[in-house]
Amino acid sequence: MLSVEKLFVSYKAIKALQDVSFNVEQGEIVALIGANGAGKTTILNTVSGIVPAISGKIAFKGEDITGIQPHEIVKRGISQVPEGRRVFANMSVLENLEMGAYIRNDKKAVAEEIDEVFQRFPRLFERKKQLAKTLSGGEQQMLAMGRALMSRPALLLLDEPSMGLAPMLVQQIFDIIQEINASGTTIMLVEQNANMALSIANRAYVLETGEVVLSGDAKELAANPEVRKAYLGE
Amino acid sequence: MNAQGTHMFFQQLINGIALGSTYALIALGYTMVYGIITLINFAHGEIFMAGAFVGLLLVATFKMNIFAAMVVSMLVCMVLGVLIELIAYRRLRKSSRLSALISAIGVSIFLATLAQMIFGANARSFPDDAFPVRQIHIGDADISTLQLLIIGVSALLMVALEYIVQRTKLGKAMRATSEDYNTAALMGINVNMIISFTFAIGSALAAAGGVLVGVLFNAVSFNMGLMAGLKAFAAAVLGGIGSIPGAMLGGLLLGVTEVMGVAAGYSSYRDAIAFFILVLVLLIRPTGLLGRKIQKKV
Ligand SMILES: Nc1ncnc2c1ncn2[C@@H]1O[C@H](COP(=O)(O)OP(=O)(O)OP(=O)(O)O)[C@@H](O)[C@H]1O
Ligand SMILES: [Mg+2]
Q: Other C-beta atoms within 10 Å of B12: how many?
């Protein structure tokens, strides 16, 4: 579904990604793990078109999407929940969801979609008129996820959804990720919480200073002594 | 205050609100553009000037009705504003704000000089019958039909703006883009289009202000954008740059204070009053009256 080949990205003088290749198949949950500054966010932002690639190729559903404008990429079916949630703080919960549905014009279908999001996240329904900045961290994460689902993406990119959340809430968010996947959305999940990520993913890639150093079946990686030592705190 | 004093006060209040409405119309463009790309659009005063000239031309040469002329002038300036962003600012969006600011000053000088070449250095005036001016008595005070026109049109435009920004899809996308440019793009919002839209709206409001001011002072000149632009910018900062209600409030406040100041006998300080208030407010409240703490955009 998504295939990335030989991707190079840099920010001015800083080389952020070097020769990164990976792919995500329809229906999968693919995890991307790595330490701070490894380049995980850069990968997602390059796929979303926010950060330009120096060289390499990104293809989605068989079409080349390298260098395409971010809003066009959303229209093709890729949606991102950015790192740090980035809800629109001074807009209401409802308005945030409407922004997620920006590319859709069918008002009735959008209203139904909003209802679905509220069913999935009842806490958002209770707070639909509130400004997003008044939500707790967990609620903001739910809003960011609900917002990203509003465009009905085929592929959902999640950047550290567990960041800064209490363990119970992390479990809840991961359950919801699995539900979203079960209802047909392919997922690419970036996490520092490698344990949790590997427990729900089908496959995973391990990133170190801008390069893919390991990849494979998530269960096998979770059992790999090197991975356990570096990312699972053993 | 005796009866005479109250009468004077209301009279000056009306005069001040009329003048302040025009400041507010121009200030909105500064604040909206700043809100979305953190640029002080120095050429905004010249868009106001261009609006006044287009209105004058249509009324004087083509005998157009003042309202129709205002609408056409707004449309022309929309195009002008969008073109300025496209040509002079878009490519500088990722460079330092200073480069964009210098480019804006360049556009400003270019437009003022162009207007001087085309229309000459002398101020021109609207034909006498452009708008029938009569005095209406409301209680103790007199309000002219012209002031009524200015206050009415400004109020209407501001209500329309508030509706667009709060209720429509484009307006919401505008707010989203001004909060977080990259995340707005991740929603599928074409941010370039939204930025053009913002310039179009701001320029249309300035054009309406230009026509109204042209009729009010019965003078249209190539350099009218400079002082009006500076004062409106002061109004925008006073209200809190980036805040739409702030620009409205700042404009009105500035207009009323200026008129009151002149009435109190400080007419030689007319243009200084605006900047004096600006300095005062910024010393006490650096973010302006309704301004939010400026968030750093990444
Ligand atoms: N906007 C930027 N400008 C300059 N350098 C950047 C920028 N964004 C990221 N970098 C650099 O690129 C490298 C990769 O950063 P990236 O944010 O992709 O890492 P990450 O794996 O997401 O880290 P974290 O787990 O902390 O979120 C880092 O060295 C970082 O300092
Ligand atoms: Mg990151």
A: 18
Q: How far is CA A32 from CA A44, A63, A140, A227, in A?
A: 10, 23, 22, 13
B286 in any annotated domain? no
Ion ligand 2 — residues with CB under 5 Å? A 40-41, 83
Number of domain units in chain B: 1
Name every residue in B having a CB less than 8 A away from some CB of A.
Answer: 169, 172-173, 175-176, 179-180, 182-191, 292
Strand pairing category for B141-144 and A78-81: unpaired
Does an H or E element contain A17, and which? strand A14-24
ipTM: 0.95
Q: Tell me if A121 is assigned to some domain.
A: no
Identify the CA nearest to B27 among candidates B239, B191, B224: B239
> pTM of the prediction?
0.93
Establish if A125 belongs to a structural domain: no
pLDDT digits (tens, 9 = 90+) for B231-280: 999 999 999 999 999 999 999 999 999 999 998 888 888 888 888 888 88
| Count of the separate structural domains present in chain A | 1
| Number of Cβ within a 10 Å radius of residue B126 | 22
Boundaries of domain holding A219:
2-87+148-231
**Residues paired with A204 in a beta bridge:** A31, A216
Please name which ligand lies nearest the alpha carbon of A37: 1
Q: Which residues in A lie closer than 8 A to residue B188 (C-beta atoms)?
A: 70-71, 74-75, 102-103, 151
A34 lines ligand 1 (CB under 6 A): yes
Chain A residues close to B189, C-beta within 8 Å: 71, 99, 102
Buried-state track B139-157, b at ≥16 Cβ within 10 A, e below 16: eebebbebbbbbbebbeeb
Identify the CATH number of the domain in which residue A225 sits: 3.40.50.300
Number of the ligand 1 atom closest to the C-alpha atom of A12: 4
Walking along chain A (234 residues) 10 residues at a time, the average pLDDT comes out as 97 94 97 95 98 97 96 98 97 98 96 96 96 95 97 97 92 95 97 92 96 95 87 72
